[in-house]
Amino acid sequence: MSQEVVFLAGSPSTTSKSTLVARQVATQLESRGLTARFYSLSDFDAADLLYGRIEAPPLAAFLSAIRGAAAIVLSTPVYKATYSAGLKALVDLIAPDGLVDRPALGIATTKLDAHGAEVSEAFRSLFRFFRARAVNSLIVNDAELTPQGKGSALAPAAADRLSLAVEALYGAIARPPSS
Predict the structure, then answer these.
(1) How open is the CA angle 104-108-77, to the nearest 5 degrees?
(2) Residue 36 falls within a domain, yes or no?
(3) Which helix (H) or strand (E) element contains residue 145?
(4) What does the DSSP assignment read for 14-52?
């Protein structure tokens, strides 16, 4: 079984709060012996995304990584109470059976707590469509996160939720799917 977890950042910014949270998840997974492989919207040509040119080398490499991944993690800032359109454009290129029985985690950062429930439901619906084994989404309010250089500090409650999300994802990777 692959030990690689594919991360897809739904923001083109390397300093996006959602990307910073995803990198903290990756660090904790790597400390447990897994490998994190990151992709961001900025890794792909916008025209290739818009026109679904899956043969374009960056998209082909991404889709190949998805096929071989032990799990997938999607991270996004919340836009209009759900995940970003750029993230949606990339996810739309994954084959409908591309995540069957794969552990999946959704991460979102939001300014409004009320949007956390909305984006969590959007991730649940998305992962249900793919028949992935979703773990509870990790939602972090922007006020719980303080960027620090290339990293970030989380408020204690958010750090606890992050640790629980990592534990759940790691456990799902270690457990084979039930038949």
Answers:
(1) 130
(2) yes
(3) strand 145-148
(4) TT-HHHHHHHHHHHHHHTTT-EEEEEEGGGS-HHHHHTT
| Structure tokens belonging to residue 112 | 């409004």
Which tokens hold the place of 33?
């012996």
Please tell me whether the overall predicted TM-score, pTM, comes out greater than 0.85 for this model. Answer: yes
Q: How many domains does the chain have?
A: 1
The distance from CA 69 to its chain's CA centroid, rounded to whole angstroms, is 13
**Residue 107: partners with Cβ closer than 8 Å, 6 or more residues away:** 18, 21, 22, 25, 73, 74, 75, 76, 137, 138, 139, 140, 165
Q: Tens of pLDDT along 38-64? A: 999 999 999 999 999 999 999 999 999
User: Does residue 85 form part of some domain?
Assistant: yes
Domain that holds residue 52: 4-174
CATH number at 147 reads 3.40.50.360
Q: Which of 69-78, 139-148, 151-160 has the highest mean pLDDT?
A: 69-78
